[in-house]
Design goal:
The chain has 398 residues and is of the alpha/beta class. 51% of the residues lie in helices and 18% in strands. The longest helix is centred in the N-terminal third of the chain and has 28 residues, at 18-45. It starts with a helix and ends in a 7-residue tail after the last helix.
Length: 398
């Protein structure tokens, strides 16, 4: 054991309680912060302490400042310069919180905690108070990140884009109304998923999706091979207007839910079982035959359900044109619905939002939290990529 280890062990032996350990770490952190501030001033002045002065500016003592860190509140000595031009990066002027704590506040907010919950958490865990206005100021800093993220360039080609909306309650003109957050998730040519953006509108409509798709194209997306959407009226035509070569697949799960809405309870199980024969058929020809059998049995009782399948048939059965591995990821929008579920989980404590900006901030932070693990290609990626290269020859550029 070297001398440094012996000294460390001796110090640790003197710490008998958790409070003593926290006090020791707090003092260690305080000294570390002060050392960093001294180094920042050296860089600002262009020479170190006790060296010959390299500029007209010089050190001018210290000022005391209370700062909040992950270990609690500490009083530190901040070095000054005569010209008062030194603004430390670690603890900037007019700021009393180290960045690490701000990151904690943003993380707690992203996970759906209210400002009062965050106040209580910071007080209990870190031993100091953070006001609601401070929490709002910290989380408002994310606005610049949202603007940059929402306007970032996109990939030239996306193999699949899933699109869906999630409804939030927002205050507008003294009333609380429903607004839809439009979400698009793309599958890139490296097999990774990417949230392309978040767009807030008053209600889900094909016309608003037109503006979403136009924005996606304006940011550099030249081609989308396949889109997976719900069966919103006019959605398919809207997609083809902006991306005319895109194959459009309506979510089969959405269609099943819509069909089941008008079925009485005693028929639901049998109805669903018969419907399964349609969308689980091995190919489109077999699916058409299964639909005719389904219609013969149920059309007299549930004509709307059969009519809906027939009217949307081409878009509902687009997935039959592809191999099994691609079928499994395009016939439903489960991927984006799972993302929506996580967004709801992180925002469920907020019954309504005071402004559009508040919704966008919460949704953006929730998406950032929910997609942290989106670092690996999707399952069976090598096989799926080869299938896309063959089917869409010339449109996929690696």
């Amino acid at each position: 054991m070297n001398s440094q280890d012996l000294i460390t062990n001796e110090l640790l032996d003197q710490l008998k309680t958790g409070d003593q350990l926290n006090d020791f770490l707090q003092q260690l952190q305080k000294r570390g912060i002060e050392k960093i501030l001294e180094a920042e001033l050296d860089a600002h002045l262009g020479y170190e302490k006790h060296q010959a002065r390299a500029s007209k500016n010089a050190r001018n003592g210290h000022t005391s400042k209370k700062v909040k860190t992950g270990l609690g509140e500490s009083e530190i000595q901040v070095p000054r310069d005569r010209k008062a031009t030194f603004d430390p990066m670690l603890v900037p002027k007019r700021k009393n919180m180290v960045d690490g704590v701000e990151n904690v506040v943003i993380s707690l907010y992203a996970k759906g905690m209210t400002t009062s919950d965050i106040e209580e958490q910071m007080r209990e865990v870190y031993g100091f108070s953070v006001s609601s206005s401070t929490i709002s100021r910290i989380t408002d800093k994310i606005t610049g990140d949202i603007v940059a993220w929402q306007n970032r360039p996109l990939e030239p080609v996306y193999l699949i884009v899933w699109m869906d909306g999630i409804v939030f309650k927002v205050r507008e003109n003294s009333k609380v109304i429903n607004k839809t957050m439009y979400i698009a998730v793309g599958l890139r040519t490296d097999g990774r998923k990417e949230v392309l953006g978040l767009w807030l509108g008053k209600s889900e409509s094909a016309s608003f999706w037109m503006s979403v798709l136009t924005d996606i194209k304006a940011r550099g997306a030249q081609d989308i091979l396949i889109t997976a959407t719900d069966n919103l009226n006019g959605f398919t035509q809207t997609i083809r207007t902006v991306f005319p070569q895109s194959a459009t697949q309506i979510c089969v799960v959405h269609q099943i839910r819509n069909s089941m809405r008008y079925v009485v309870w005693k028929d639901k199980k049998e109805f669903a079982q018969d419907l399964k024969c349609v969308y689980k058929a091995p190919n489109k020809q077999a699916a058409e035959a299964a639909l005719e059998d389904f219609a013969e049995k149920w059309e007299s009782k549930y004509s709307y359900a059969v009519k809906s399948w027939r009217e949307n048939w081409d878009e509902l059965t687009e997935f039959f044109e592809f191999p099994t591995e691609i079928r499994e990821i395009i016939y439903t929008t489960n991927l984006i619905e799972n993302l929506n579920g996580k967004i709801r989980k992180y925002t469920k404590n907020k019954l309504s939002f005071p402004t559009d900006e508040a919704v966008q901030k919460s949704a953006f932070l929730a998406v950032r939290e929910a997609t942290k693990k989106w670092s690996m290609p999707i399952r069976n990626w090598g096989l799926i990529l080869n299938q896309f290269l063959i089917i869409f020859e010339g449109r996929v550029k690696m």
